[in-house]
Amino acid sequence: MSSSNRPTRLFFLLCCVGLLVLPTLGLPSGGPAPVVAPVITDEALRKHISFLASDDLKGRLPGTPGAEKAARYIADGFKRAGLTPLGDHGWYQEFPFIAKVKLGAKNRFAWTRDGRTTAARVDEDFRPLSFTSPAPVEGDAVFAGFGISAADDAQYDDYAGLDVKDKIVVVLPYSPAGSNPHTKFGKYLTVRYKALTARTKGAKALVVIVEDDTFKESQIARLRYDDASGDAGLPCLAISRQMANAMFAGKTVAGLEQSIAAASKPDSFPVAGVHIALEGEVVKETQTGRNVVGLLEGSDPTLRNEIIVIGAHYDHLGLGGPGSLAEKEGQIHNGADDNASGTAGVMELAAAFAATKPRPKRSILFIAFSAEEKGLIGSAFYVEHPPQKPRAIAAMLNMDMIGRLRDDKLTVQGIGTSPDWRPLVERANGGEAKLALTLGEDGYGPSDHSSFYKKQIPVLFFFTGNHPDYHRPTDDVDKINFPGEHRVLDFVYRIADAVANQPAKPAYVKAKSEDPAARTSGGFRVYLGTIPDYNAQVQGVRLDGVRENSPAAKTGLKAGDVLVGLNGREIKNVYDYTYVLQELKPDQEIEVVILRGTEKLTLKLTPGKR
């Protein structure tokens, strides 16, 4: 399921349960036995998930050999089932994505005191951060503690009484409470936050002192792409602790960390006589991702021109890094539940429908998406560039994390995207094998069905719930409930079979807007109703849409707007947007600055209360 590294997506994930529990849906107990999908067995599911979630595939990170092995395995499964390849490269639909960043040619860091200049060595003493702005700058150095300005929330402000305008701000890593996210400083730990704060205060650049005495072991200085397109709006570099100690002349990094933490109050100051000149440049590297696409042609000469999409993403987090909830990077994230379970489901449903006699009347398109964890990139590319001849998509059924059925509980999201879904789902959940369903109205969510719902296609999303192994190396095959997943797939089969054979396709309606994040603990205090486009390569935040009757909708915001300012703060990327949201208060009017085409508009918006 889509990465929590995208700031607001974790809120969607955590709230997929708790909407409306319907444990007794369907036909009365003792009614007709439900249709059971042919072919599917627990053993087949175990085989698929064991391969996809094996250490040999090293977490199926898009663009890696492990992901390629997974794609070939899925394509072979589609071939055995008798599907027709429907990618633009055989079974594969290829698409570009930004996979990583590397050092550019223009990187320098030098500081001067008393006419003496010290030049730092890239990769030894300093390194640009992945979201640096490339402009060369110079200015006097100012030490701003931990780079936190949170007088209201945390009663702490490193910038109080400190003039940093046109200066280069040097800050410590993390917070006075260390790297613990469960303190009052939790939301101020990231370097992205420190960059936004420094930029807002008028600084020319941000220099972050790394957390490790050995520079090359630093996680902060590690050059990695964090899946956000916009840069920080100012140069951002990391320097070694030894370099910082030399600049401070008489004070040490460790001493400053300890004294500020012990006193629980800031200790910021101009770094006497130190002038810094720096430049940071990183280059984004594009790689190729692959969706795996196979078609089962429908049997009806007319209805076969309408397609049902059954999909799941097969990528995961590789060895960790952005999106992982593991404490350390470098461990294989096998993603057995997320989402080898859904991928195995697509493969087995393909085999089941191919074995059905007679074949379904409508055509069924089976797709294993890649780069979902990077922001639904594969599915977003598919809906914009479908490789097959034009056909109407009747519905999209998405499975993401369906391998941990507990207490018969299954979440089905998207019920509100068609008036036909609720009665159909109730019928499919009949008989003694019925599940305890949690139904959600909204068509948006943290997985690939959102890409289809944006195109006004009815969607359903199947999910057996979050668990402590989510986005951690412990999401392994031994924790999959294979009989439980088999039950889920029988349920999905009955729904898909009904849609494939009924006379009319499901009617699309705009679902009732929900605010899933409001049901989470620790979320934002305010609700705007915006739906960010995480894939847009823009400076700012492009909106995919706004929720009906939300504050954003009442203000006049709409899909395609690029949000570049919020509450007096310039917005360069989705991280800026998230941090400013955390500062807002409900029912207090703010200004929103957007770009609508070539026009720049300033609107008034009153955030709602969560």
At a glance:
By secondary structure, the chain is an alpha+beta fold.
**Cα separation of the termini:** 24 Å
Question: Can you tell me the overall shape?
Answer: elongated
CATH topology grouping of the largest domain? Aminopeptidase
Helix fraction bin:
10-25%
How many helical elements? 13
- The fraction of residues in strands falls at 15-25%
Number of strands: 28
Count structural domains: 3
Structural class: alpha+beta
Name of the top-level CATH class of the largest domain: Alpha Beta
Largest sheet: 10 strands, mixed
Mean of the pLDDT scores? 90
**Could you list the spans in which at least 5 consecutive residues all have pLDDT below 50?**
4-33, 515-522
Radius of gyration: 26 Å
Q: How would you describe this structure to a colleague?
A:
By secondary structure, this protein is α+β, with helices and mostly antiparallel strands. It folds into three domains: 9-100 and 285-501, Zn peptidases (Aminopeptidase), CATH 3.40.630; 106-280, Glucose Oxidase, domain 1, CATH 3.50.30.30; 524-609, Pdz3 Domain (Roll), CATH 2.30.42. The protein has 13 helices and 28 strands. The strands form five sheets. Strands 1, 2, 3, 14, 15, 16, 17, 18, 19 and 20 form a ten-stranded mixed β-sheet that branches. The chain has an eight-stranded mixed β-sheet with strand order 5-4-13-7-10-11-12-6. Strands 22, 23, 24, 25, 26 and 27 form a six-stranded antiparallel β-sheet that branches. β4 and β5 (116-119) form a beta hairpin. The longest helix has 20 residues, at 336-355. The model is unreliable at 4-33 and 515-522 (pLDDT under 50).
